[in-house]
Amino acid sequence: MKSLLYHGFGIKGYRYLRTRYEKGEISFELEPENEPEVPAGQKLRRHGYRWRMVRSVSIGLKPVVLKVKVPRWLNTTTGEEFEQSPLCRSLHENHTSAREIDR
User: Fold this and answer.
1) CA–CA gap between residue 47 and residue 67 (Å, rounded)
2) Is residue 38 predicted with pLDDT exceeding 90?
3) What is the pLDDT of residues 76-99, one digit of tens each?
4) N or C: which end of the chain has fewer CB within 10 A?
5) Where are the alpha helices (H) located in the chain, listed in sequence order?
């Protein structure tokens, strides 16, 4: 399944949890593979999560939704709470323009 998510949708750095087929749409549930980086001498503790729904490219006539788990973290040293936001690639990264194809 990870191969489909990477080659079909360009998703990497996420762990596949499950697929659901509900109300005529396909939804893939994912969570980040790695914990966020923390400065030396500080400690993090999970502090809950929320789900983020992202509409993706359809498979055939079936709409596809990526349901991404967004963990919340508590820095026990500083008391700061934050979400581990998913990384978004630039729109121009790995993008081939029509001009480049014509060359």
Assistant:
1) 19
2) no
3) 888 888 888 765 543 344 444 444
4) C
5) 2-9, 98-102
Q: Provide the CA 42 distance to its chain's centre, in angstroms.
A: 25
- Spatial CB neighbours of 102, under 8 Å, sequence gap ≥ 6: none
**Rounded Cα–Cα distance for residues 96 and 17 (Å):** 31
Residue 38 DSSP code: -
* Structure confidence at residue 47 (pLDDT): 87
Instruction: Tell me the residue length of the chain.
Output: 103
**Rounded mean pLDDT, 26-38:** 89
Of 23, 33, 28, nearest to 1 by C-alpha is: 28
Separation CA 7–CA 38 (nearest Å): 31
Query: What's the burial of 28, exposed, middle or buried (CB within 10 Å: 0-12/13-18/19+)?
Result: buried
Provide the whole-model pTM. Answer: 0.72
Would you state the structure tokens that stand for residue 20, as one six-digit string?
Answer: 């659901």
Q: For residue 36, is pLDDT > 90?
A: no
